[in-house]
Design goal:
Largest sheet: 4 strands, parallel
Order of helices and strands: HEHEHEEEE
Radius of gyration: 16 Å
Strand content: 15-25%
Structural class: alpha/beta
Helix content: 10-25%
Number of strands: 6
Shape: globular
Distance between the termini: 28 Å
Strand order of the largest sheet: 1-2-3-6
Number of helices: 3
Length: 145
């Protein structure tokens, strides 16, 4: 893992070039900045895991997502199998809070948040967000790309 991709990167993969950031636009972040540095500085709405690196969304990263500019930050741990998931559902809700939207490429159970609240988990892949029913048979996510 080499961290933040900027236009200054040596041997920049042509497939990554459209996503590379200009360092002049990053206010204090540099080439290869770590995920925690980026999350703390950018305060993203969405954390999209496609790395295949199990656990890269660790406690520190998930807690930093609490400071997102979004009132309902989304954490998508899309890598599978489960051992490659960037985080597991229970950790995402525990550290980032009960107001997140969580989707994963691996199946996880809904998370009991206490006081009768449930952190809903739905499986997704690079094409679909699968519909899921909650205990009261209401759809808690809908849509596909």
């Amino acid at each position: 893992m080499q961290g933040l991709v900027t236009t200054d990167r040596n041997n920049l993969d042509p497939a990554a070039a459209p996503f590379a950031k200009n360092p002049r636009d990053l206010e204090g972040l540099t080439e290869c900045a770590s995920i925690i540095e980026v999350v703390k500085k950018v305060r993203p709405h969405v954390l999209l895991g496609l790395s295949g690196v199990g656990g890269i969304f660790n406690e520190e990263v998930l807690k930093a997502m609490k400071e997102s500019v979004s009132t309902k930050p989304a954490i998508f741990a899309m890598s599978s199998p489960t051992m490659n998931a960037e985080c597991i559902a229970i950790d995402a809700f525990k550290h980032a809070g009960g107001d997140i939207v969580f989707r994963s490429g691996s199946p996880f159970e809904n998370v009991d948040l206490g006081n009768g609240k449930v952190g809903h988990v739905n499986q997704a892949n690079n094409m679909y967000l699968f519909l899921g029913c909650s205990a009261n048979n209401r759809w808690n996510v809908a849509g596909c790309c």
